[in-house]
From TrEMBL:
Domain of life where this protein originates: Eukaryota
Name of this protein: Cytochrome P450
GO MF term list: heme binding; iron ion binding; monooxygenase activity; oxidoreductase activity, acting on paired donors, with incorporation or reduction of molecular oxygen
Residues reported in the UniProt entry to bind heme: 489
One Pfam match: p450
Names of required cofactors: heme
Stated family: Belongs to the cytochrome P450 family.
UniProt keyword annotations, A-Z: Heme, Iron, Metal-binding, Monooxygenase, Oxidoreductase
Length: 556
């Protein structure tokens, strides 16, 4: 009986996909679309995959560079099964997608279902009223005022990082994998600051199942990304119980690895949640005995939820889902950007020296005490380095939305259609995949100038008028890095503070440079999360940098 149910569910999913593919194929043959005239790269001639391989290859940067610089600020590329993907980085069009008409351009069903299966019903995987309620509950715990209270926790953690690295280089300069250290410190910062939970002592190597699962999640997801198109049908026509039964019996290691990772995250999230609830019910004395003394985001969230009205309260499953959501989002952003900053400083030693002078000067003026939140904000070059790196290397390169009804995207500058006519707006049919091109917006030469592809922190000392006049709809500093609108990154201030505290701690004591003995240059690969490797062919994710004590460099 069960096997017949399974067989029926699988057949329904396959039938759904076949009908959908046939519909798109016939539609592409006989129905003209308003998107047919939007400029873009020549067709590959492959109706099934379109430009998918060119876009989602680890070395897709050259293809993306041509895509964004040859055809204008809105580009049409061929998606799967003959569908068009519309890449948008025109500021006015982005304003409509992100802000004015954000109710029209919703998260894609594939992405929502994937996040729901990975993390549960957290902030990344819910829509509409549920998303509004969750964000309303979370906004106060990510406020600047709360960030100030967490700063001492951050200094304590980064001091352990300094101690750990010092042990490696105390006898002389050596090469360290700074991606590994960036990931470890990012996980511990969000662990203590976000959850009141310690993942990693940093000073010793210590395995933690939850931390290891979070580190492995994105690399493990890559082999499965091409099958994400199956999720809407699979979730619609099968029950959670049936999907679980199938999942346990499919003998494919990439799928089984994801199952083990998600099971570990779910189990540990429940343990962390139960411990927090127990402490809160015991009273203030039990709360302050925990890691972070109850100042962490999760403790504050649970306290706020207990005090909320019945209408605003979040159920347990949504609260538990915030745990993996918060850790994933924070670790993903901070570790990658920190590694990029250290790499850029290693390649630009003059900027590194100037930044170190700014930091040590501020520390000395403060009688060598840790800098306050406001004093951190006054470090001009540090701010410029962080902003420029977030501009050049956003953790998320692009993000798709789906038009839920017919719409029109106005353009700030006209584009020339495939037929040679000037287009001042683009009609977007219902169901179109509209891709917000974060990377392209942040490097738009019409806004940032012809040197937009160069890492120049000093550009932030005085921004061009074109930048301020473009009105990019991002929540952070004329950039789309942290998105905007109701789905903007809620923790961008948290992430920014993490990065700054880590950098002022490291740069006071260590100097970073590119090792002379690397066989090939460090290359940042495209993916769900950008990752560095030595050369373009290596599958090992690493950022080897030569690290030396600052005192040694001065004495030399």
């Amino acid at each position: 009986m069960l096997l017949s149910i399974v067989s029926g569910g699988v057949k329904l999913c396959l039938l759904f996909l076949l009908v959908r593919a046939a519909w798109f194929f016939l539609k592409s043959l006989f129905v003209r679309s308003s998107l047919d005239n939007v400029p873009g790269p020549p067709s590959t001639g492959n109706w099934i995959v379109g430009h998918f391989k060119e876009l989602f290859h680890r070395e897709s940067w050259d293809f993306q560079h041509d895509l964004y610089n040859k055809y204008g600020q809105i580009v049409a590329a061929d998606g799967l099964f003959g569908r068009k993907w519309v890449f948008v980085f025109d500021p006015l069009a982005l304003h409509h997608v992100v802000l004015k008409d954000q109710h029209i351009y919703e998260e894609t069903e594939q992405l929502i279902q994937m996040d729901l299966l990975l993390f549960g019903p957290g902030l990344l995987s819910v829509l509409g009223e549920t998303h509004r309620k969750q964000r309303k509950m979370l906004n106060p715990v990510f406020s600047i005022n709360h960030m100030r209270h967490m700063l001492p926790i951050f200094y304590e953690i980064t001091d352990r990082l300094r101690e750990a690295i010092h042990r490696h280089v105390s006898r002389g300069p050596c090469t360290l994998d700074m991606l590994n250290w960036s990931t470890r410190i990012a996980l511990e910062l969000i662990g203590q600051g976000g959850l009141g939970y310690s993942f990693d002592p940093l000073t010793t190597d210590c395995a933690n199942p939850y931390g290891d699962a979070m580190k492995e999640l994105m690399p493990a997801m890559l082999p499965l990304m091409k099958y994400r198109i199956l999720l809407p049908a699979l979730c619609k026509y099968t029950s959670p119980r049936l999907r679980r039964w199938l999942l346990q019996r499919i003998p494919w290691e990439p799928l089984q690895k994801i199952r083990r990772i998600v099971d570990t995250m779910d189990r540990m999230s429940h343990e962390i949640y139960d411990a927090k609830i127990t402490a809160l019910r015991k009273g203030e004395e039990a709360v302050v005995q925990q890691v972070s003394e109850g100042k962490d985001i999760l403790s504050k969230l649970l306290q706020a939820n207990m005090a909320a009205s019945d209408a605003d309260k979040l159920p347990d499953d949504q609260l538990i889902a915030q745990i993996t959501t918060i850790v994933f989002a924070a670790m993903d952003t901070t570790s990658g950007v920190l590694a990029h900053i250290l790499h850029m400083l290693a390649e630009h030693p003059n900027v590194q020296d100037r930044l170190r002078q700014e930091i040590t000067g501020a520390i000395r003026a403060n009688d060598r005490n840790n800098l306050s939140y406001d004093q951190l904000s006054e470090l001009t070059l540090l701010d410029c380095v962080c902003r420029e790196t977030l501009r050049m290397f956003p953790p998320l390169v692009f993000l798709p939305r789906t038009a839920v009804k017919d719409a029109v995207l106005p353009l700030s500058a006209p584009i020339r259609g495939r037929d040679g006519t000037l287009m001042h707006e683009v009609a977007v049919p219902k169901g179109t995949s509209v891709v917000m091109s974060i990377h392209a917006s942040n490097r738009n030469r019409a806004i940032w100038g012809q040197d937009a592809d160069e890492w120049k922190p000093d550009r932030w000392m005085k921004l061009p008028d074109a930048v301020t006049e473009a009105h990019i709809p991002g929540v952070y500093s004329h950039l789309l890095t942290f998105l905007g609108g109701s789905r903007a990154c809620i923790g961008f201030k948290f992430s920014e503070m993490e990065m700054k505290v880590v950098l002022i701690t490291l740069l006071q004591h260590f100097k970073f440079s590119v090792p002379d003995d690397l066989e090939e240059p460090i290359y940042w690969n495209f993916g769900g999360v950008q990752w560095p490797s030595v050369g373009r062919k290596s599958d090992v994710s690493e950022l080897p940098l030569k690290v030396a004590l600052v005192e040694e460099e001065v004495e030399a």
